[in-house]
Structure formats: C-alpha cells, structure tokens
Amino acid sequence: MSKKEEKILNQFQDLSKQAKPKPKYLKNILLAFIVGGIICTIGQLILNMLIKYGVPEDAAKKWLPIIMVFLGALLTGLGVYDKIANFGGAGTVVPITGFANAMVAPAIEFKKEGFVFGVAAKMFTIAGPVLVYGIGTSVLVGLVYYLLKLFGFM
C-alpha cells in the first residue's frame, strides 16, 4: 500500500471513529438493573402468591422456575420479550426467562426449515453450550464435594 493510500485510510478510520455513536453505559446499566429487577420481582410475587394460596413452600419453589420459563417462552412467542430485551438489554438475559428466550427464539426463527433441521436443531444453538457446561461443571463440583467428604475434609 502506498503512503498516499495509507494516509487516506487513516483519515477514513479517524472520521469513522468520530462519527460512531458513543454507547450510553450508565443508561444501559440502569435499564438492565431495573428490567432484571422487575423480572425477579415478578418471580417473587408469583412465589408469594403460590404460598399464599396453599401451595407448600417446597412445591412452590419447584413450580416457580417452570412458570417463569413458560412465561419467558410465551412472551418470546408473542414477540413481547424481544421488545423488553431491546429496552432492558442484559437485564433480560440473566433471569431464567432469558434462558427460555434463548431456547424459543432460534426455534421460531428457523421453523421454516422444518421440525427436525429447523426447530429441533436450532433450539439448542444458544442454550446447548449453557446446558453442556452447566451440567459438566455441576458433575465436577459434585465429584470434588464427594471426594472431600470421603476423605474427611468436610
């Protein structure tokens, strides 16, 4: 590349950097905190209502993730969860509803490719690694715990 071309390229890169919009970190952090907090508060309200209406606490704690995953999947299917995610950013990723969204969104997107190669194959595109590493990590932690207990360290 000639010196003239390098100079033009550098000028273009400088102009690109100046024109690039600056992310609003504080706003994004606050929105993520608020939206994530609202999702978790809704989960707590559901748990409280289950207990209030006579569901034993242990059973209510088992039902809550099922209900939250269902709500996340339902809202994704209706196109509402994406709007919430556009507003709240990372605040929608962390709660369990984000996992449901990660499962349902690719399945919906690829349904035109058929049930097996579209829905079934793409459903685990994002969630698959989460499941693999989550299960793998839990097995390793369980083995370490078992060995520590076996040899009297715990």
From TrEMBL:
Keyword rRNA processing part of the UniProt annotation: no
Coiled-coil residue spans: none
Pfam families for the chain: SpoVAC_SpoVAEB
Keywords: Membrane, Transmembrane, Transmembrane helix
Source species, domain of life: Bacteria
Transmembrane helix among keywords: yes
Membrane-spanning intervals of the chain: 29-51, 63-81, 87-108, 115-148
PANTHER family: STAGE V SPORULATION PROTEIN AC, STAGE V SPORULATION PROTEIN AC-RELATED
Protein name according to UniProt: Stage V sporulation protein AC
Taxonomic lineage from the root: Bacteria, Bacillati, Bacillota, Clostridia, Eubacteriales
Gene expressing this chain: spoVAC
